[in-house]
Amino acid sequence: VGQPDSRRAYGDRLRAWLGLSSETFYDPRSIAILPMGLCFPGTGRAGDLPPRPECAPAWRDRLLRHLGNLRLTLVIGQYAQAHHLPDAGDTVTGVVQSWRKHWPSVVPLPHPSPRNNRWLRTNPWFEKDLLPALRARVTEVLERDAVHLVHAHAVAAGVLRAENLGRIRRVGRLDREAGLPVPHQDRLMILPRLDGDRVGVRR
């Protein structure tokens, strides 16, 4: 599905923050992208309107219960933070500055929109302190689960030698080489303020 240039810019910046390629970012075996609303609420004077208030209460908790293997949740933007971290602060700056309180399972982030370029310039600690730690944590989560599945598949199939473990970094590559089915396991969840019809999740 094609996306406007502004939406591609959001995605490019977010993937750069996480240190992920497009292939990994859109791999549903590793990452779930869950918006605050499943419908587009319309456009206001300064951009998209907020997510419709009835959306998250109606379906969000039920959907979250189906994501049973979450190791890292990114809470992106003011609407997601107000819903998931209501006691963390009154502003995006305050919530994101509190990231160490929620570490390592939850990390609040500003929205990656170009509209936040000024925020990024006035908060250099975000790129200096938070982003390096976040990239390391994302790598740890994805690689640890990949190694876990390597061991599980090796035991089940009896076809993978020990030296393969250091060579295989991603579950998809392992499954292609070993000819094994891919179990559906969500490991990293993105909780953005974007609306459902503006986020493409490949299945």
In terms of topology, how is this protein built?
Blueprint: H1 5-18, H2 22-25, E1 31-33, E2 43-44, E3 47-48, H3 55-64, E4 72-76, H4 77-84, H5 92-97, H6 99-102, E5 106-109, H7 117-122, H8 125-157, H9 171-178, E6 188-191
Parallel strand pairs: 1-6, 4-5, 4-6
Antiparallel strand pairs: 2-3
Distance separating the two termini: 12 Å
What overall form do the CA principal axes indicate?
Answer: globular
Structural class of the secondary elements? alpha/beta
Tally of individual helices: 9
Radius of gyration of CA atoms, rounded to a whole number? 18 Å
**Biggest β-sheet strands, sense, barrel:** 4 strands, parallel
Which percent band covers the strand fraction?
5-15%
Task: Order the strands across the largest sheet as they lie in space.
Answer: 1-6-4-5
- The assembly state of the depicted protein chains is single chain
pLDDT < 50 runs, ≥5 residues: 148-186, 193-203
What proportion of the residues is helical, as a percent range?
40-55%
List keywords for this structure.
4-stranded parallel β-sheet; two-stranded antiparallel sheet; 9 helices; 6 strands; 46% helix
Structure description:
With 203 residues, this protein is of the alpha/beta class. It has nine helices and six strands, in the order ααβββαβαααβαααβ. It has helices at 5-18, 22-25, 55-64, 77-84, 92-97, 99-102, 117-122, 125-157, 171-178; strands at 31-33, 43-44, 47-48, 72-76, 106-109, 188-191. The strands form two sheets. The chain has a four-stranded parallel beta sheet with strand order 1-6-4-5, sandwiched between helices. A hairpin with a 2-residue loop joins strand 2 and strand 3. The protein is globular, with a radius of gyration of 18 Å. The two termini are 12 Å apart.
